[in-house]
Amino acid sequence: MTFQNTREFARELDSQDTLNHYQEQFIFPKVNDKRVIYFTGNSLGLQPKRTKAYVDEVMNDWAELAVEGHFYAQKPWWDYQERFAEPLSKIVGALPSEVTVMNTLTVNLHLLMVSFYQPKGKRYKIICEEKAFPSDQYMFQSQVHFHGYKPEDAIVEIKRRDGEHNIRLEDVLAKIEEVGDELALVLIGGVNYYTGQVFDIKTITAAGQKAGAKVGWDLAHAAGNIKLELHDWNVDFAAWCSYKYMNSGPGNASGCFVHEKHHNDPDLPRFAGWWGHNKERRFKMEPTFDPVHGAGGWQISNLPVLSLAPYLASVEMFSEVGMDALIAKRDQITSYLEFILHEIDKEVKGNFEVITPSNPMERASQLSVFLHGEGRSLFDYLMKNGVITDWREPNVIRLAPVPLYCSYEDMYDFGQILKQGILGK
User: Fold this and answer.
1) Any known ligand binding at 134?
2) Was 133 annotated as part of a binding site?
């Protein structure tokens, strides 16, 4: 398609967009009494209007039934989490038995590492990407310390080549081969939070397992954003947060994936708790742990139903839309945003550098842009003029045109505000 940097063209794209009406199902902040252009769904998604009804239902059941809500609520609390199995399995490409919801992201990664990071002898090293999200870095450091190793020895970072912003697949594969029989675990972010690079999960998983390691993925920026086939790709485990692209609310519950090949392994260690015990016998208060079959057997505590309610509202919206439709719009609106950036760059004689890969297979709903020659004042101008975006030092803005609630006209308007912010200095 040949794009045009005009309002009329953007509106024409919106008129052809089968997801355009979903904008009206979200609540937008306002700046200067005008709905914002929201580019930070890669940090915290907007609130769906339907969310309140799901939370109110739990509150009303609690008020009217108290403890009996566990069994007699409209959606009984004792098996509330089971309602996620079917819709989440479609979002991440899993069997329903392979997914569950519990805790928060880094907590779940720690718990999964109990099962899947088992250093022994010379096989103790972890491969991750350079500049992983800090929480992952802290997790790796504390895990290897716990097992008696030094981070500088046990943690192997795959680095970017000099002068490049993204990690090459061949460098990942070469590092896996190099570490070889010292490798215990590969754990990488499916989408790098800073650059927006999408990693080849299928190929990297196969390479890590061929080397004798377990392979897991932090899908914080991937779940609800990219096409995932975790079961078919034979991924050992994964976890993701729900508050970015899945719009479940700040700090909300995490999703987990454990491949079915691990479900019947009695020798696989895990931290156990009451809620992971055999559902049919849970209330018999038995002294010996008998795990639920599937990912639910990794649950520990009674689940926070009030937190799960917004997440359920979101995954049911995803079921209506489907990942194929989301990804089709994601690719086009991201390309249109990139086009707008390049057009404005010409008009202001600037020097914008998009550091997110240009290959559509290596990017999703994010463009990270170096604004060479521009400073924090430009970001402040955008924010004051209704563009909610994200600033990373030294001069990078991250733009996430989330397909559920961003429009093509938003992309055009952003370009005009950006131009004014530069020329008006």
Assistant:
1) yes
2) yes
